[in-house]
Specification:
- With 117 residues, the chain is α+β, with helices and mostly antiparallel strands.
- 29% of the residues lie in helices and 33% in strands.
- The chain has one domain (2-112).
- The protein has four helices and seven strands; from the N terminus they run βββααββββαα.
- Helix 3 (87-95) runs antiparallel to helix 4 (97-111).
- The radius of gyration is 13 Å and the shape is globular.
C-alpha cells in the first residue's frame, strides 16, 4: 500500500490491484468537502467478507451500493471503505456528478488519468 496525499487528504492505494482504501470521511472530502457523506450512503450488508480492515484487522463486511450497483468492503467498526479498481469512480459518478469532477481531478493528480485507479 502506498499513502498518497491530495489537498491534505491522505488515501491508501495498492499499485498491484489498483484498489483504494479511504478512511471514514475521506470519500466525502474528496468529492465535495462533506466528510459525513459516508454515513449518507445507502449501503446494504450482503455478507462478512474475506478482506481485512487495514486499520483494525477485523474482517470487513461486503456491502452493496444502491447508487452504483457495486459491491464494496466496509469496516464493521466504521474505519473506512475499500474500493477495488474502478469502483470508486462508479460510485462517485452515481451519487454526485459534480463531486465526480473533483474526484477526477484527484485521480489525474495522483495517477495521471481518472480511469487508472
Amino acid at each position: 500500500m502506498l499513502a498518497l496525499e491530495y489537498e491534505n487528504i491522505e488515501v491508501d492505494w495498492c499499485p498491484l490491484c489498483k484498489g483504494l482504501w479511504l478512511d471514514q470521511g475521506e470519500l466525502g472530502l474528496l468529492m465535495n468537502g462533506d466528510p459525513a457523506i459516508d454515513a449518507k450512503l445507502d449501503l446494504k450488508k450482503l455478507a462478512r467478507g474475506k478482506r481485512r480492515c487495514p486499520r483494525c484487522g477485523h474482517r470487513m463486511d461486503e456491502v452493496e451500493s444502491a447508487e452504483g450497483r457495486i459491491t464494496l468492503d466496509r469496516c464493521p467498526y466504521n474505519h473506512g471503505l475499500w474500493f477495488d479498481a474502478g469502483e470508486v469512480q462508479t460510485l462517485v459518478s452515481a451519487i454526485d456528478p459534480a463531486g465526480f469532477v473533483k474526484f477526477s481531478d484527484f485521480c489525474a493528480s495522483l495517477f495521471g488519468a481518472a480511469s487508472s485507479s
